[in-house]
Amino acid sequence: MSALSHTKSYYAASANDTRIRPALESEVQADVCIVGAGYTGLSTALHLSEQGFKVVVLEANRIGFGASGRNGGQIVHSYSRDIDFIERHYGQATGKAMGAMAFEGGKIIRRLVRDYDIQCDLKDGGIFAACNNKQFAELKGKKALWEANGHRELELLSAEETRGYIGTSRYTGALLDKSGGHFHPLNLVLGEARAVESLGGVIYEGSGAVKIEEGSQVRVHTQKGCVTASFVVVAGNAYLGDLVPKLQSKAMPCGTQVVTTEPLSEALQQELLPHGQCVEDCNYLLDYFRLSGDGRLIYGGGVTYGAREPDKIESLIVPKMLKTFPQMKNVKVDFAWTGNFLLTLMRLPQFGRVGAHSNIYYAQGYSGHGVTCSHLAGKVLSDAIQGQAERYDVMASLPQYPFVGGRMMRVPYTALGAFYYTLRDRLGI
Ligand SMILES: Cc1cc2nc3c(=O)[nH]c(=O)nc-3n(C[C@H](O)[C@H](O)[C@H](O)COP(=O)(O)OP(=O)(O)OC[C@H]3O[C@@H](n4cnc5c(N)ncnc54)[C@H](O)[C@@H]3O)c2cc1C
Questions:
Q1: Which of the pair, 408 or 195, is modelled with greater confidence?
Q2: pLDDT over 50 (residue 1)
Q3: How far, in Å, is the centroid of ligand 1 from the Cα of 198?
Q4: What local confidence, expressed as pLDDT, does residue 406 receive?
């Protein structure tokens, strides 16, 4: 058996492509070398390949091994901090430019699924559910904010209307985003990989970059090979480790856990989510859930700071699931796993360049909200490499601070902050 493997998730068990690509064992040349085969890396690779660039992607483990192959599969627009926060802190022009990009990631995903016929159970519709009146008031604000930025497919739902979409009495109201949606995340990333290959791109699995040698031609070394390229894109996000120390210092990997039940009866599916949308609640440490293509409930939540792997995922997540859906008491859990996303201090994405030659790009730190932003990042980075850098410049202008407390104390300090916000959610203040 190969040493390379996905985490034991429902997605890995239902992946529609199990081929393993060979490792890099020679010296190769490319226009662009991409480190990491998640959405950021493959969206960049795909946008560049479509423009005729010769692209080589290095993946340390399997395609989609990171967050992209194990996430909640929810298309959530905008950023972890919304457009109003960006405008308040970084000015009107930055807010406007970020607002203009905030709904593009979902469109990119839908275009790729359509153009490359990617089979990933894509379904329209996402719901933000309010756990108290304060959160419902904030959802009204979100609707106004998003509409002001051109996104109009939104509908507020009263508590009673929400019960017609989600079979629980837990929520005081909700916001339905008709252009949100959900999909099988690993099958999306595998489909993107095949699309890159169909355009002549090459992906090496089991080929972690171990050293990047700067220069006008960058050399990216793996254990057994080397790629020489005019540009490099570092897209390792929470799984990058210390390959680029500058990136490691300004973000923190965090874990979040997911369980997947056995397939539910038609009647139970109808009772939980009769219209089939995905849901995330509005708590600081949020719960997210949806039905899979084959009728299981996929339920995620919780955060472990510093990417610690919790021992008993089921005992963390099942009580959350039962709080929302007590009717799931006797349903069996078939899969439980954890995955890492990358948190930044301001909860805003980090785009930039490293090295003296300005030809090593990175994008990371979507702070748990990365399905759409990673796809947008691929387009923005691809444009920048082709010399159209206006949107990249806006992204790169957002500040990138290190975490308070450095590598030793950032975990307890951040956990303390999260405790404070969780308490506020519980008290509804
Ligand atoms: C459990 C979970 C649930 C989530 N749910 C949602 C959701 O529902 N909606 C949403 O918007 N966001 C969600 N997210 C966040 C979202 O999944 C991520 O933001 C997004 O997938 C990040 O994509 P990426 O390509 O930047 O990183 P990743 O997908 O993590 O990919 C990085 C890749 O780089 C590789 N790599 C690292 N170092 C090297 C190296 N040195 N050489 C070669 N390869 C390397 C890794 O092996 C990995 O495959 C969730 C995250 C998790 C963990």
A1: 195
A2: no
A3: 23
A4: 63
| CA of residue 75 to ligand 1 center, whole Å | 14
Residue nearest to atom 42 of ligand 1 (CA): 208
Cα angle for residues 382, 67, 47 (degrees, 5° grid):
15
Looking at domain 1-122+184-250+345-398, its CATH class is alpha beta
CATH architecture, domain defined by 125-182+252-341: 2-Layer Sandwich (3.30)
The residue with greater pLDDT, 424 or 95, is 95
pLDDT (0 to 100) of residue 3: 78
| % of the chain with per-residue pLDDT over 90 | 89
Residues with CB under 6 A from ligand 1: 35-41, 58-61, 65-68, 70-74, 76, 208-209, 235-240, 243, 256, 258, 288, 300, 339-341, 366, 368-372, 374
Q: Which two tokens stand for residue 276?
A: 């089939």
| CA 270 to ligand 1 centroid distance, Å | 31
Q: What is the pLDDT of residues 215-266, one digit of tens each?
A: 999 999 999 999 999 999 999 999 999 999 999 989 999 999 999 999 999 9
Domain boundaries, the chain: 1-122+184-250+345-398, 125-182+252-341
Q: How confident is the model at residue 408 (pLDDT cuts 50, 70, 90)?
A: low
State the average pLDDT over residues 114-131.
98
- Which of 196, 239, 305 best tests ligand 1's pocket when mutated (most atoms within 8 Å of CB)? 239
